[in-house]
């Protein structure tokens, strides 16, 4: 999808007024975080595992060229092919080309954030190939022609009634009188329809949670089993992954697995963790005959040399979304692209450029919960502050803004003057209660009241108290 | 070598502020790959100081139960057909099963007492009409109650995903503590310097599920709705 990030404030306002969305977000707030807490409570080594996960990701990033080359070598050894893509355009061109070579009419897809990032479905459709999302949530939002609103629960923003409407609008071959009130009825209907799609598909496209350099394997995690049907039944399997997904060894993958599901859904382990290496072997009874891996840079290699490289440790668990007061208030769509929440706010300005995502670093209270829950200890508040600085340095200001800042700076560098001015303002405006309206600060008072300042400044009160105490 | 590949690798090197790795740094990395070391293994994945292997079996059963799988212990492999037939009948399912054509499972006698008349078994990869599948696990991993299944000439992976009901035979002797112990089993399978990884290693923890509709947990999204594990205690056949 095309990013529309400049609309964050409008989107957020609309999201807060949307009662169905607010109900969905309330469910989220009690679901994943509580399960995560319970799972971690059963694992005393969780913090040690987070340290180990952080360290192994840092080690890999320090030697990313080496591990990517080794991964490629091992994929080739296993009979697969690695394709390199500098950007979304190159990646979609490679994938559409591979699908055409395979004579594909329909393609099944297992949920992939990189697939969303490169908008692969739009490009497949433009080439006359039908992409079918098979993750239940992703299937629902594909029917509704909307992007995911969450990393691991793409349809988290929807009510069951909205899902029912999407099914009735799209599954027009089924009897209208059928009952779809229960989640089970919706699931059963989708399962039957998607089963046919799995069997008919010519190509299966998946993402990858990890790439293992030691063995040239992909590690692909789902709860539904849809990735396994996607990559086992069709003749061709194409996996698309970004370059920072590589880990050195299976041992390193085990460490990431131990923190991934617990941080994401609060499961100890997701139901299906599949480690696949190359195409079907000559004596295998099933599996794809062709095995392709598309590695996407998409701006990540350049991030390695900057403080924001810490963002490349991210394993897309969504714990930061699930715990973020801003995400929990506005949902994922307000962020305007495929990544949302704190990780999206810190990543997107680096992938698209700060001038395309100025609002995102400000979509945070900097409360620090995201960093507290991050399984690979990404200092998200620090990264957001750095992005705010970059936003400020690259912004052009209006003359009144500049004048106001200059006056403030002039006073701030002269403590006596500063105290005199703030003291006068406190004496004038100070007291209890709130101002509903004030001149010059309409931007603030339009949407909220301004608390009245104390009559005396903190410094003044401190010096008075000091005298009385002594 | 593609232009994109060269460009990405060059961008990485520039960003990391170095050119090629020096030989010594390279050797450290080669060693790390050649002899992979575990990072942190939780205590729950290990046998305690005064413990025994049976603790791992207990832990496996407890954890796999938390993941909504069911399990029963059988004295020996010969008890499998009867247990399969009983399980399917109790669940109200048709008396037929598609089994992996693995030599171990092929030794099973499906006419033995306990299997109802008319019970049918077929060996091979699963097809969409199969209602129940029988697989043989390569290992059980106690720390999270996870099964490890591997693909191979006699081990189709479709058995694990297509049928709505999955039954899996697991020898108690192959239950290990940690994922790393299971990796060791994979490495030990390697013959003559060939790559040790089978095409597919499927780690399975409970039956398929989704919570994509209003966070309501439902079992049986695309993979099996039921996962029943038959743990074989007989050491002789392990």
Q: Which structural traits does this protein have?
A:
heterodimer; A: alpha/beta; 22 helices; 11% strand; B: 238 residues; alpha/beta; 6-stranded parallel β-sheet; 4-stranded mixed β-sheet; 7 helices; globular
Give a brief rundown of this model.
The complex is a heterodimer of chains A (470) and B (238). Chain A has 470 residues and is α/β, with parallel strands linked by helices.
Write the layout of secondary structure elements.
The complex is a heterodimer of chains A (470) and B (238).
Chain A: H1 8-16, H2 19-41, H3 46-62, H4 64-77, E1 81-85, H5 88-101, E2 106-109, H6 113-117, H7 120-126, E3 130-133, H8 136-143, H9 160-170, H10 183-200, E4 203-206, E5 210-212, E6 217-222, H11 226-232, E7 236-242, E8 246-247, H12 250-264, E9 272-276, E10 290-296, H13 300-303, H14 319-323, H15 325-330, H16 341-352, H17 369-373, H18 380-393, H19 399-412, H20 415-429, E11 434-435, H21 442-445, E12 450-451, H22 458-469
Parallel strand pairs in A: 1-10, 2-3, 2-4, 4-7, 5-8, 7-10
Antiparallel strand pairs in A: 5-6, 6-9, 11-12
Helix pairs in contact in A: 3-12, 16-18
Chain B: H1 3-16, H2 23-34, H3 53-66, E1 70-74, H4 80-90, E2 96-99, H5 103-106, E3 120-123, E4 132-136, E5 139-141, E6 146-150, H6 158-161, E7 165-171, E8 175-176, H7 179-188, E9 200-204, E10 209-210, E11 218-219, E12 226-232
């Amino acid at each position: 999808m095309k990013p529309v990030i400049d609309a964050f404030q409008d989107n957020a306002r609309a999201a807060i007024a949307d009662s169905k969305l607010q109900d969905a977000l309330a469910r989220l707030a009690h679901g994943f975080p509580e399960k995560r807490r319970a799972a971690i409570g059963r694992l005393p080594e969780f913090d040690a595992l987070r340290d180990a996960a952080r360290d192994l990701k840092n080690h890999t990033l320090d030697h990313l060229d080496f591990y990517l080359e080794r991964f490629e070598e091992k994929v080739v050894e296993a009979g697969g092919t690695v394709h390199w893509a500098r950007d979304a355009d190159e990646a979609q061109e490679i994938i559409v080309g591979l699908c055409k070579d395979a004579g594909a009419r329909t393609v099944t897809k297992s949920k992939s954030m990189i697939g969303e990032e490169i908008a692969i479905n739009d490009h497949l459709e433009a080439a006359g190939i039908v992409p079918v999302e098979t993750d239940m949530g992703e299937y629902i939002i594909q029917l509704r022609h909307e992007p995911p609103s969450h990393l691991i629960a793409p349809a988290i923003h929807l009510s069951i009634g909205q899902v029912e409407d999407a099914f009735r609008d799209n599954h027009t071959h089924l009897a209208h009188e059928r009952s779809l009130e229960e989640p089970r009825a919706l699931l059963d209907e989708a399962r039957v329809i998607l089963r046919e799609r799995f069997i008919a598909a010519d190509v299966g496209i998946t993402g990858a949670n990890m790439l293992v350099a030691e063995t040239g394997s992909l590690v692909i995690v789902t709860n539904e089993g849809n990735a396994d049907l996607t990559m086992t039944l069709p003749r061709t399997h194409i996996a698309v992954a970004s370059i920072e997904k590589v880990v050195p060894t299976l041992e390193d993958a085990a460490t990431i697995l131990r923190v991934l599901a617990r941080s994401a859904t609060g499961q100890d382990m997701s139901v299906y963790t599949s480690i696949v290496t190359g195409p079907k072997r000559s004596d295998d009874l099933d599996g794809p005959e062709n095995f392709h891996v598309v590695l996407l840079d998409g701006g990540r290699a350049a991030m390695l040399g900057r403080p924001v490289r810490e963002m490349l440790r991210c394993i897309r668990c969504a714990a930061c979304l699930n715990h973020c007061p801003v995400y929990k208030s506005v949902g994922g769509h307000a962020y305007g692209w495929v990544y949302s929440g704190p990780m999206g706010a810190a990543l997107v300005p680096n992938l698209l450029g700060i001038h395309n995502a100025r609002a995102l670093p400000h979509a945070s209270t900097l409360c620090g919960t995201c960093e507290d829950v991050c399984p690979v200890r990404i200092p998200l508040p620090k990264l957001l502050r750095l992005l705010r600085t970059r936003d400020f340095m690259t912004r052009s200001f209006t003359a009144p803004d500049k004048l106001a800042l200059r006056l403030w700076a002039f006073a701030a560098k002269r403590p006596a003057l500063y105290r005199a001015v703030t003291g006068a303002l406190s004496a004038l405006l100070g007291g209890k209660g709130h101002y509903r309206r004030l001149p010059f600060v309409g931007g603030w008072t339009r949407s909220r009241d301004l608390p009245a300042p104390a009559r005396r400044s903190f410094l003044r009160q401190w010096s008075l108290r000091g005298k009385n105490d002594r | 070598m593609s232009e994109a590949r060269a460009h990405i690798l060059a961008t990485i090197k520039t960003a990391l502020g170095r050119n090629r790795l020096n030989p010594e740094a390279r050797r450290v990395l080669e060693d790390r790959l050649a002899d992979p070391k575990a990072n942190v293994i939780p205590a729950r994945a290990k046998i305690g100081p005064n413990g025994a292997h049976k603790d791992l079996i207990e832990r496996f059963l407890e954890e796999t139960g938390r993941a909504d799988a069911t399990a029963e212990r059988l004295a020996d492999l010969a008890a499998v057909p009867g247990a399969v037939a009983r399980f399917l009948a109790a669940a109200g399912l048709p008396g037929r099963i598609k089994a992996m054509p693995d030599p171990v499972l092929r030794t099973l006698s499906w006419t033995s007492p306990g299997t109802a008349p008319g019970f049918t078994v077929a060996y091979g990869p699963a097809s969409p009409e199969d209602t129940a599948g029988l697989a043989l696990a390569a290992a059980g991993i106690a720390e999270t109650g996870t099964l490890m299944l591997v693909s191979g000439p006699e081990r189709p992976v479709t058995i694990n995903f297509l049928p709505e009901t999955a039954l899996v035979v697991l020898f108690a002797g192959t239950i290990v503590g940690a994922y790393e112990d299971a990796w060791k089993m994979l490495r030990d399978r390697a013959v003559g310097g060939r790559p040790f990884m089978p095409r597919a290693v499927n780690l399975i923890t409970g039956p398929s599920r989704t919570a994509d509709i209003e966070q309501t947990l439902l079992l049986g999204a695309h993979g099996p709705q039921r996962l029943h594990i038959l743990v074989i205690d007989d050491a002789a056949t392990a």
